[in-house]
Task: structure prediction
Amino acid sequence: MQETSAILFKHFTLSTIRYFVLAGIPFLLFYKFFTTWFNENKIQNRKANVKDFVREIGHSLQTTAVFAVIGYLALQSPIKNYTRLYTNINDYPGWWIWVSLMISLIIHDTYFYWMHRLLHHKKLFKLAHLVHHQSTNPSPWASYSFHFFEAWTEGAVLFVIMFLIPIHPVTVILFTIVGFIINVYGHLGYEIAPKRLRNSILFEVLNTSVHHNIHHSKFKGNYGLYFRFWDRLMGTEHPDYVKEYDRIQQKRFGTENQKAPLQSQSS
Ligand SMILES: [Zn+2]
Ligand SMILES: [Zn+2]
Result:
């Protein structure tokens, strides 16, 4: 019992450090030290205030505690014996670490899209998801700002992945780090995508910070996490997304970027 609580405490400490480092560094850069520098990158004109940050950090700490329990259950409790977790790295080729990471992100995106649509059902929205949507102008601190119930449904994706594909603990750790970095980017409040993304095929596939920011400001549309795939397939992408993305990028890069919106409207 004492050992279990020590493991849980270790998971909680690591997941809290991950939160404060990966959300804290961008917060300091964009909201404290270089705010003027990034002025053109700002998605909404409004400024999030300290009250928002405190609420977001409070809920996020609760989420890190839930994720600590999930991490323990998935990796160190007897549940792991029913999953496809492998600990001998030589059981699969080295490249599988990276391929399984990519597949994990695709599974997560699909899981998240449908869970998120469900959470927007009237009753579930009021009961749980409203907590995340209190951040109508999100900051990096909002990345884990979930209701207790939503924190469990968010974290449970780990079990889904571990039941579906052979996965090494290293990939699990990479998945939580990469997933969280993309999550922070979605809640950054600033668009940092390079200019060339707009005319690349990746723009058609990947989500951007503007994409998720619109979900927070409008409450409807743009339910995807990493990719645009499900929103486009299900017709749930916000109709103003590309226009809004182009508006921000033109603010950053000037009128020379104007070719892009014309191309987008014809596609
Ligand atoms: Zn939502
Ligand atoms: Zn969000």
In short: Confidence is low (pLDDT under 50) at residues 257-267. Residues 116, 120, 129, 133, 215 surround zinc ion (ligand 1) (CB under 6 Å). The longest helix spans residues 2-33. The chain has twelve helices and no strands.
